[in-house]
Specification:
extended, Helix Hairpins, 3 domains, mainly alpha
Length: 276
C-alpha cells in the first residue's frame, strides 16, 4: 500500500479488492457476493456519475468515478477467482477494441472526415461478433440490452429500425402519432364499460405506447430523453422546495396550505427562474 502522503495506485486498489474477497481474512459481505448481486450496484454507480455531471459537481464526479472504477475491479476480481479473466485482460480488451474501432485515428487518417456518416463503427462491431463466433441474432433488435433504462432502450430500438428505413422522415408524423396516442389514452381512461382489471390493462398499454412515441419524438429532436427527464425532475425539486421554504418562513407547512396557495407559489418560483 502507498506510504503516508503518497497517492495510492491502481495496483493498490486491486490489492484492496483481493483482500476484501479473501475467504479467510476478507470482509464476510464482500466474500459472499456474485456477479448478479453486484450488478445493481454497478448500474447505480453509473447513474451517480451521470448525476454528478448533471449537477456540475466536479468533486462529486471524482468520487463517483472512483466508485464506478471499483465496480469494474470488483467484477474482474470475481472473474479472476473463477479463472475466467482478470483486470489486465479487461484493460487489454478495451484498449484493443478502441484502437480497432477507430481506424481513422490509429490507422488511416483519411477516413476521419467520413467516419460519422460511414457507419464504420457498426460494421466493425458486426465483424467483431463474427470473429467471436457469436450467432447472428434473429433480429437486429435482439442485442439491445434489456437492462437499459426503458426510455434509452426505446431510442436505441428505434435507431436500429431506422437504419433499414423503418422511420418517419420528418417530425410532423411523429407529432401526429403522439396526438393519436394521447387520444387513445383518453379513450382508455374514459372507458368504464368493462371490468376494472381490463381497463387498467388498457390504460397501462396506451400509456406505454405514448411514452414510446415520446422517446421517438426525443430522437427526432436529438434530445436525450433520460437527460431531459432528469432536468425536469431537478426543476420540479427546485420549485417545490421553494414552496416549502416560503411556507416555512410563514410558520406553516404544505399541509397547512391550500392547493391554490401552493399553485400560486409554484408560479412565483417559476417566474423567479426566468429572471435568473
Amino acid at each position: 500500500m502507498a506510504e503516508s502522503g503518497k497517492k495510492h495506485t491502481l495496483d493498490d486498489l486491486l490489492a484492496v479488492m483481493a483482500r476484501l474477497r479473501d475467504p479467510v481474512s476478507g470482509c464476510p459481505w464482500d466474500v459472499k457476493q456474485s456477479f448478479a448481486s453486484i450488478a445493481p450496484y454497478t448500474i447505480e454507480e453509473a447513474y451517480e456519475v451521470a448525476d454528478a455531471i448533471a449537477r456540475e459537481d466536479v468533486d462529486g464526479l471524482e468520487d463517483e468515478l472512483g466508485d464506478l472504477l471499483f465496480q469494474v475491479v470488483y467484477h474482474a476480481q470475481m472473474a479472476a477467482e473463477q479463472s475466467l479473466f482478470c483486470f489486465a485482460d479487461v484493460v487489454d480488451a478495451i484498449t484493443r477494441k478502441m484502437i480497432r474501432r477507430h481506424p481513422h485515428v490509429f490507422s488511416d487518417p483519411k477516413l476521419r472526415d467520413a467516419f460519422l456518416s460511414s457507419r464504420v463503427w457498426e460494421r466493425i462491431k458486426a465483424e467483431e461478433k463474427v470473429a467471436r463466433g457469436s450467432a447472428a441474432p434473429a433480429s437486429r433488435l435482439d442485442d439491445v440490452p434489456l437492462a437499459l433504462p426503458s426510455l434509452t432502450r426505446a431510442v436505441k430500438l428505434q435507431k436500429r429500425a431506422a437504419q433499414v428505413g423503418f422511420d418517419w422522415p420528418t417530425l410532423t408524423p411523429v407529432l401526429a402519432k403522439a396526438e393519436e396516442e394521447i387520444a387513445e389514452l383518453k379513450q382508455a381512461i374514459g372507458d368504464d364499460q368493462g371490468d376494472d382489471s381490463e381497463r387498467a390493462r388498457c390504460i397501462k398499454e396506451e400509456f406505454g405506447d405514448l411514452l414510446f412515441v415520446m422517446a421517438n419524438l426525443a430522437r427526432h429532436l436529438k434530445v436525450d430523453p433520460e437527460a431531459a427527464l432528469r432536468d425536469a425532475n431537478a426543476k420540479f425539486v427546485g420549485r417545490f422546495t421553494s414552496i416549502e421554504d416560503v411556507l416555512r418562513k410563514d410558520g406553516r407547512s404544505c399541509e397547512d396550505a391550500t392547493l391554490e396557495e401552493m399553485d400560486q407559489l409554484w408560479d412565483e418560483a417559476k417566474a423567479a427562474e426566468r429572471k435568473v
